[in-house]
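Revision sheet: structure tokens.
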Amino acid sequence: MKGKYIILAVTCITLTAITSCSKDFLDKKPIVGVTADNFYKTEADAIAAINAAYATLQFEMSPAGHFRWFWGDIMSDDSQKGGSGDNDAIELLRLETFQGPTNTDLLDSEWNADYEGIYRANVVLEKIPQIEMDAQLKARILAEAKFIRAWFYYNLNSMFGGVPLVDKVLAPSEYNRSRADAATIWAFVEKDLNEAIIDLPVRSGYGSADLGRITKGAAQALLAKAFLFQNKFAEARTQTQAVINSGEYTLVSDYGTIFTYAGENNSESVFEIQYMNASGGNWGKNAANEGTFTNVFTRARGQFAGYGFNIPTQDFVDEFKKEGVEDPRLKFTVFRVGDAMGDRGIFTLESAGDAGYLYHPRKYFTNLADDAPLGDPNPNGGSNDRVIRYSDVLLMDAEAAAKTGDEAGSKISLNVVRARVAMPAVTASGAALLEAIYHERRVELGLEGHRFFDLVRTGRAAEKLAPLGFKDGVNQVFPIPNSQITLSNGVLNQNSGY
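Predicted:
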């Protein structure tokens, strides 16, 4: 399969299996007799094209796993690989111990999936402007495509550093592109998101049939993340304040409901990738596979019928006890021995059937009763990926405020998050306030794919991850997949130290 890829994973858009982000629109609808020449003519074609771009947000196995929690959690001090042993996904073990490799399908799959999403967004941005259709809808669709393109460049730039910049559909003679530097990619992300913000509706501006589509708040929150990665704290706070002052989002009262099915697309959902358990998806990269693999990959083995990956570390569990009392979020983040794992039974070392792990992740756990009603349940998990929650925005605001000298404002946002779980208000200042914010991010957003990138962008990765093998000046970014360097005939250069 790898041999079919060109350097930027430029593939033809698959119009026979187009999907929407909303669960009401996740049914595949075959289109017979469609070609590039007779498509992109009507409003319905425009909607189908943007839905095909949304579909790439769902890709997790293409052909190898490239989950956000691979990079954000397992590569950090929050979790370890797990599985049935060292040889189960051994390339992931080598990555989490910062030993490479540069020739792994795991990173190659991430690279290809991201560039496929960029390609599909570029198709929308190139083809849709010429269609005669409702002007407001057209503007929204183009804005959605810009967000999707920005999201994938955000992923690529935060993982690999500078990457090839592709802002159009390429001709074959243009495939082999050298890397733009990271600053150029960040500027491009900022441009796409600033333009998208103008035409995206606020959350309440969508009807129920479009639940889950990209909103103005999602673009503002992602732009804030991009600014934080560059230490542009004042700019980041402008965006977080815009989200906060929009009145579109509130924290749900019960933290324990966020990762239930009932908690999907709730009042604090800012950017959430939609999945469902009845799509009939299978293993590998479907053109429109709407089921997630995260549920089975992160569920305990043995009688719990999972693969046992993303095992919480003792250091992570201890973080919830640093304030002298156990933070109530721990029980909704981690399963401990003796806990009931939903309707699948009581967690014991024997029932889990693995290497004797004391903890398992809870946030993407699903009950047996929630298994797919048809086909193989393993590639048809129904849990949405909560990419950006409102609590994340509040904590970004707290960090940006502290960094720009507004400690009073910082503590307001920080303590809103803590009050939800009845943790005492933070009164610290200076470095202690920043440490409190970093602690809060770890316990509030634990096992949601943030930790490694938080450590890198705040300059703490070398200190926190050195025991795992992290090398300062090298492991802040991942290696460029060796397959991509080969396919580029050497146009791409490897990151330093790999």
